[in-house]
Amino acid sequence: MDFTLDEELEEVRALAHEIFTDRATTDRVRAAESSESHLDEALWTELGKAGLLGIAAPEEAGGAGLGLAGLCVLLEEQGRFVAPVPLWSAAVAALAIAGHGTPAQRATLLPGAVDGAFRLTLALEEFGPADPAHPTCAAHRDDAGQADRDAAGQGGGGWRLTGTKAVVPSPFGASHVLVSAATEHGPGLFLVDSGAEGVVWEQAETTTHDLAGNLTLTGAPAQAVGTPGGGALAWTLEHAAVALAALQLGVTQGALRHAVTYLTERRQFGRPLGGFQAVQHQLADCYIDIDALRVCLWQAVTALEEGPAPAAVLVAKWWAGDAGLTVAHRVQHVHGGIGVDVEYPVHRHFLWARQIAGTLGGPSADLARLGGVLATGPVTP
Fold first, then answer.
1. Which residue pairs from 5-14 have beta carbons closer than 8 angstroms and sit at least 24 positions apart in sequence?
2. Mean pLDDT throughout 50-78?
3. What's the total number of domains in the chain?
4. pLDDT, tens digit (0-9, with 9 covering 90-100), for 287-342
5. Given a cut of 50, is residue 152 above it in pLDDT?
6. Interatomic CA distance for residues 361 and 358, integer angstroms
7. Does a structural domain hold residue 1?
8. Rounded to whole angstroms, how far apart are CA atoms 221 and 3?
9. Predicted confidence (pLDDT) at residue 151 exceeds the cutoff of 80
């Protein structure tokens, strides 16, 4: 199958690469990590002005309408530079609203998400070994709240959420959060105002220096996004997994670029380190892993265009977790002692690779889920 990008996606790649090259330098990344938000707010604004924040959103909402493919191209470029902006979580949340939200939710949230006026985020994980597809956070009908929403013409269902969500990515400054929760009809996705009554945040810095938040909900008011038990959560989890794989693809490519530069310039015994066969073998293994990750990623993107594709998505996510960490370790190894210097640029790629590999479950969990998919039904090619 040919996964060559078309002209439109290549233009997206070129624009994103130009912006990240100019505005995601090592000095700027380091400055963002020490800022109050740990985000590069100026870069976020620039991406909004360039129309890249809405690259995946439908055209009727002001986006470019390029869907998951456009988002993956953008995330790959972000990963190359480990640029500290919350793209994957905000964009996947906006896609979920576009695909499953009510007309009122889409009209209220999508324009601001597209131009960067405000952000959304996702609360899909919980503490312990919980499968993101089966949350323990509970959602119950709020009949009084439903009456108020119906009277206002908002729709979306009146609900109350109770439970705890772990390491919500970049919630501080986000206006709303999409929360996974269990109902009597099955798991669902719910829209919560990040500052609503019954919402409590606890700051938690992650491996990538992102200021994540642990979220405690105590009867917090919420609106349903799609019909609970109707597939909105499964859809969102699949798209989030593919988005993370795209980000990891960029992270590994950026790490390999650092290795090639270092090994070309660093000399030992009168010759560049890159000239030694043992080092070349390490880089060749990295290249093979990255190429396999790329193929699996675009296989999943293509499969999702036709509908749910759990097997293809899990294969891509497993490659992103397992091969991503392997490449990060190899790259650090060939750098020698400087590779573990926390101030050296390649160390950030290692941190990002590790964080991405564990998000929504690690490689072992992905293999277990893939085995379940293969054992229970036909597989989407």
1. 5/73, 8/66, 9/66, 9/69, 9/70, 9/73, 12/52, 12/55, 12/64, 12/66, 12/70, 12/73, 12/74, 13/73, 13/76, 13/77
2. 96
3. 3
4. 999 999 999 999 999 999 999 999 999 999 999 999 999 999 999 888 887 877 88
5. no
6. 5
7. no
8. 43
9. no
pLDDT at 270 over 80: no
Provide the token pair at 103. Answer: 């007309």
Which has more confidence, 343 or 223?
Answer: 223
**Whole-prediction pTM value?**
0.93
Say which CATH number the domain at 295 has: 1.20.140.10
| E strand intervals along the chain | 119-123, 138-141, 158-168, 174-183, 186-193, 199-205, 211-224, 267-268, 271-272
- Average pLDDT for 199-206: 95
pLDDT band at 1 (very low <50, low <70, confident <90, very high): low
Cα separation of the two ends of the chain: 11
CA distance 316 to 268: 38
Is the distance from CB of 29 to CB of 83 less than 8 angstroms?
yes
Q: How far apart are CA 161 and CA 35, in angstroms?
A: 32
- Report yes or no on 2 lying in a domain: no
Residues 260, 315, single domain; the answer is yes
- At residue 284, what are phi and psi to the nearest 5 degrees? -65, -40
Q: Which residues are paired to 191 by β-bridges?
A: 178, 223
Contact 17, 11 (CB under 8 A): no
Tell me the residue range of the domain where 293 lies: 233-376
User: Distance between CA atoms of 236 and 285, rounded to whole angstroms?
Assistant: 32
Q: How far apart are CA 187 and CA 98, in angstroms?
A: 19
Residue indicated by tokens 């606890």: 202
Phi, psi of 58 (to 5 degrees): -65, 155
Residues near 188 by Cβ (< 8 Å), separated by ≥ 6?
139, 180, 181, 182, 224, 225, 226, 227, 228, 229, 230, 232, 233
The angle formed by the CA atoms of residues 89, 355 and 279, to the nearest 5 degrees, is 130
Task: Give the pLDDT score at 28.
Answer: 95
State what percent of residues in the chain have pLDDT above 70: 93
The two structure tokens encoding residue 219: 């009867």
Whether residues 164 and 176 fall in one domain: yes
Q: Exposure pattern of 135-163 as b/e (b: 16+ CB <10 Å)?
A: bebebeebeebbeebeeeebbbbbbbbeb
Residue tagged 């590790």 (tokens)? 354
pLDDT at 380: 52
